Amino acid sequence: MCCLKDILKKAIFIILAISVLCFSGCAMNNSNEQDNVAQNNQKVLKPGVAVPKRDKNVKYSVPEGVSVLMYHMIGDIPGNDAVMTEKNLRMQMQYLKDNGYHPITMQELYDYVSKGAALPEKPVCITFDDGYHDSYTIVYPMMKEFNFPWTLFLITDDVGKAYNRMTWEELKEMADSNTVTIANHTLSHPKLHNLSSRKEKENQIEGAQKALKYHLNIDNAWIAYPYGDYDEEVIDICVKAGIKLALTTDAGRIHEGSYPYELKRVYIGNNVDMHHFAERLMKDDYSTL
Questions:
Q1: What is the pTM of this model?
Q2: Quick one: 23 and 161 in the same domain?
Q3: Is residue 263 part of a domain?
Q4: Distance between CA atoms of 204 and 119, rounded to whole angstroms?
Q5: Any signal peptide, and if so, which residues (predicted)?
Q6: Within the chain, which residues score under 70 in pLDDT?
Q7: Are residues 19 and 151 in the same domain?
Q8: SS3 letters for 162-218?
Q9: What is the extent of the structural domain holding 202?
Q10: Do both 26 and 128 map to the same domain?
Q11: For a 10 Å CB count at each end of the chain, is N or C smaller?
């Protein structure tokens, strides 16, 4: 009887030991799988580019994404879709106000993308490219009237020189008003990817950074790539120049997990009627005109 008890005790001990070993092995496999997933996720980021780490526990306040509206010139040039009439712009801004949209700044957009910071309901970004004089005479007073923050991406070499462009004095007035963010659109608006050397790319990006600092005392952190054109070298130069967020011309909204140096925008031309304007605020796969 005693022997039978001893045999049973040994059998139970062996079974328990095997169970412990199996459980440990499974735990190690799970740990390895998690490490592999983490490594695979990290590969999504561009090599050699230091971007802020995202908190996986953050619950994003706007899961449907943010539309960044892309405008250019305001005026009356029939047949040129990039030139929007003042009337159409006003109708669109009134639509935003009447339908509960809340324009946000580049800083707020960056905080949302990189940190999961809360945003107001129905957020939207308003951006204008290049620096045409109508941004001072039409857009600037209209945005103040609606109390909408907006961003101007400036071609710095054109200031006070090219036809229909603003002066540094006008830009300084706008910058000091705290209603508009003035940011980098390079020195002369080239296709950055097509430039033959890194030095030329650096000159375009860093030169505009220096101009914004010298003339407007702006430590700039935002850029819109001319023609939406860039490559990994351009991104690396932007990071080293202190730029934290970059906008392309690729169509769509910005969502949770968006890479901060490849952010999409929503083109708004003069042919975009109010029906299509409303659609572009709400859908990634909006109709083309």
A1: 0.80
A2: no
A3: yes
A4: 33
A5: 1-29
A6: 1-63, 289
A7: no
A8: CCCECCHHHHHHHHHCCCEEEEECCCCCCCHHHCCCHHHHHHHHHHHHHHHHHHHCC
A9: 67-282
A10: no
A11: N
Instruction: Give me the pLDDT at residue 61, please.
Output: 56
Tokens of 22: 């199996």
**Distance between CA atoms of residues 232 and 193, nearest Å:** 9
> Cβ atoms within 10 A of the Cβ of 223, count?
26
Tokens of 234: 């351009």
Neighbours of 251 (CB within 10 A): 16
The token pair that represents 227 in the structure block:
């023609």
The label of the residue with tokens 């071609």 reads: 155
How many angstroms separate the CA atoms of 127 and 114, rounded? 20
Domain count, the chain: 2
For residue 37, being part of any structural domain is answered with no
DSSP state of 67: E
Q: Measured between alpha carbons, how far is 29 from 277 in angstroms, rounded to an integer?
A: 51
Q: Three-class SS of residue 149?
A: coil
* C-beta atoms surrounding 114 within 10 Å: 17
131: left (phi > 0), else alpha (psi -120 to 50), else beta? left
60: left (phi over 0), alpha (psi -120 to 50) or beta: beta
Q: Is 154:131 a contact under the CB 8 Å cutoff?
A: yes
- Amino acid, single-letter form, for residue 33: E
| Six-digit token string for 211 | 């101009």
